[in-house]
């Protein structure tokens, strides 16, 4: 049986003068995702050495879902990730992912080394098949859209993902209150390291978490695409208005960020990758 192993590490972690804040956000998000995506995880994601992490998933879709959500949550921290798809040598229930070995891990290691050579912070797939180059081109192109995404756009995308996720899962809205408070410390560190004055840093948006919780199930019943030549936009009419209410701002302001940060385009590409990873072709590799 084949599994999907992921390995990732932090890009430019030394630019943060207080590494505790980085580790605090990373560990908190990893623990949270290990819980909400537990059904797709063979071995929980754990820290293997310092800023390096690894885990084992039952399939490629579960691995992609996990790492895409992690990238959203840990902003402004950037990670590079390798996903290997293959067999494992030993299957010992008591062992953690860091003790596992085998083809899936070798391929994941080769993938993350390839990302390091490109000096990028993208996801790199290594299934040892002809499909890798296409998957990795999709991942590279979608990551380019987010290179200069501001804090507000990132939060809009997080709210969008809660309201209309790639795959429905339980969410703890109180987690996001903790998360955004701790991410703000990282943003402050970035502003100081870049030479900005404190008064020039971005303010944290006000989010109505109760309203967000009430709205999270309104849109996740969006039907799958019918057979067509193109993907339907992974967005639902009315979401911008609800996000504006949740963030206590105008719909026009939300739409401005959605357009400038190309949020709809990013989400549609992520949905295309996720759906592709769920096709039967991976069962024959």
What would you say this structure looks like, in words?
The radius of gyration is 19 Å and the shape is globular. Strands 2-3-1-4-5 form a five-stranded mixed beta sheet. It starts with a strand and ends in an 8-residue tail after the last helix. The chain folds into two domains: 3-149, 2-Layer Sandwich (Alpha-Beta Plaits); 151-273, no CATH class. It is α+β, with helices and mostly antiparallel strands and 285 residues long. It has helices at 19-36, 60-73, 103-118, 132-145, 151-163, 173-193, 209-215, 239-246, 251-260, 263-277; strands spanning 3-10, 41-49, 52-57, 79-86, 123-126. Helix 4 packs antiparallel against helix 10 (263-277) and helix 8 (239-246) crosses helix 9 (251-260). It comes from Jutongia huaianensis. This is Guanylate cyclase domain-containing protein.
Question: Would you spell out the secondary-structure blueprint of this structure?
Answer:
Blueprint: E1 3-10, H1 19-36, E2 41-49, E3 52-57, H2 60-73, E4 79-86, H3 103-118, E5 123-126, H4 132-145, H5 151-163, H6 173-193, H7 209-215, H8 239-246, H9 251-260, H10 263-277
Parallel strand pairs: 4-5
Antiparallel strand pairs: 1-3, 1-4, 2-3
Question: What would the keywords be for this entry?
Answer:
alpha+beta, Alpha-Beta Plaits, 2 domains, five-stranded mixed beta sheet, 48% helix, 12% strand, Guanylate cyclase domain-containing protein, SatD
Number of domains: 2
Cα radius of gyration in angstroms? 19 Å
Tell me the CATH superfamily of the largest domain.
Nucleotide cyclase, GGDEF domain
SSE string, helices as H and strands as E: EHEEHEHEHHHHHHH
- Helicity range of the residues? 40-55%
Query: What share of residues are in beta strands?
Result: 5-15%
Helix run count = 10
Provide the structure class: alpha+beta
CATH class of the largest domain: Alpha Beta
Overall shape:
globular
């Amino acid at each position: 049986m084949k599994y999907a192993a992921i390995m990732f590490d932090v890009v430019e972690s030394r630019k943060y003068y207080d590494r505790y804040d980085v580790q605090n956000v990373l560990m908190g998000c990893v623990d949270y995702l290990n819980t909400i995506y537990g059904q797709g995880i063979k071995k929980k994601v754990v820290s293997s050495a310092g800023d390096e992490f690894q885990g084992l998933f039952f399939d490629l879709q579960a691995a992609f879902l996990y790492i895409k959500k992690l990238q959203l949550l840990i902003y402004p921290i950037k990670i590079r990730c390798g996903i290997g798809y293959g067999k494992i040598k030993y299957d010992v229930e008591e062992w953690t992912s860091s003790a596992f070995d085998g083809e899936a891990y070798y391929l994941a290691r080769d993938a993350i080394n390839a990302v390091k050579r490109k000096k990028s912070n993208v996801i790199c797939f290594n299934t040892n098949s002809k499909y890798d180059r296409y998957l990795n081109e999709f991942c590279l192109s979608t990551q380019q859209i987010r290179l200069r995404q501001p804090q507000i756009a990132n939060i809009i995308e997080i709210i969008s993902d809660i309201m209309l996720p790639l795959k429905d899962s339980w969410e703890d809205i109180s987690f996001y209150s903790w998360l955004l408070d701790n991410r703000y410390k990282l943003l402050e560190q970035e502003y100081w390291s870049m030479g900005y004055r404190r008064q020039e840093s971005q303010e944290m948006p006000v989010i109505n978490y109760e309203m967000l919780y009430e709205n999270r199930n309104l849109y996740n019943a969006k039907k799958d695409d019918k057979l067509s030549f193109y993907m339907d936009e992974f967005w639902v009419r009315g979401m911008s208005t609800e996000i504006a209410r949740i963030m206590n701002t105008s719909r026009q302001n939300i739409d401005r960020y959605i357009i400038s940060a190309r949020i709809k385009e990013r989400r549609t590409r992520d949905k295309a990758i996720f759906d592709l990873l769920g096709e039967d072709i991976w069962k024959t590799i």
